[in-house]
Amino acid sequence: MDQKEIGIILKERRKSLKITQLDLADIAGVSVRSLRDIEKGKTNPELETLLNLCKVLGLEISIKVIK
Fold it and tell me: How do the domains of the chain map onto residue ranges?
């Protein structure tokens, strides 16, 4: 999964929960600018940031072993 896909998933989930970018950024402890860049796929979030966003949005991160 690349940064654009991550951004799409986060944005769609945020919208489905009817949470604004401002509210999500505040709750997850990230700047609104960072959140916008993540949602647009312009930047890769740091793991801690991604974990915080996922926690607020009720999403889970999984690791897949590729053989």
Answer: 3-57
What distance in Å separates the CA atoms of residue 37 and residue 26, rounded to the nearest whole number? 15
To which residue do tokens 């989930």 refer? 13
Q: Decide: 19 and 52 in contact? Cβ < 8 Å.
A: no
The pLDDT tens digits of the residues spanning 4-23 come to: 999 999 999 999 999 999 99
Among 41, 8, 13, 25, CA closest to 33: 25
Entry pTM: 0.91
Domain over 3-57 is classified CATH 1.10.260.40: yes
The pair phi, psi for residue 46, each rounded to 5°, is: -65, 155
Phi-psi region of 31 (alpha: psi -120 to 50; beta: other; left: phi over 0): beta
